[in-house]
Amino acid sequence: MEHQVVVIHGGDNFGTYEEYISFLKNFEIESLDYFTQRGWKDSLQEKLGKTFQVILPRMPNAFNARYIEWELWFKKLIPFLTDNVIFVGHSLGGIFLAKYLSQNKFPGKIAATFLLGAPFDDEGSDEPLLDFALPESLDLFATQGGKIFVYHSADDPVVNYFQQRKYLKALPSAEAVTFDGKEHFGQEEFPELVDALRKV
Question: Which domain holds residue 150?
Answer without folding.
Answer: 3-199
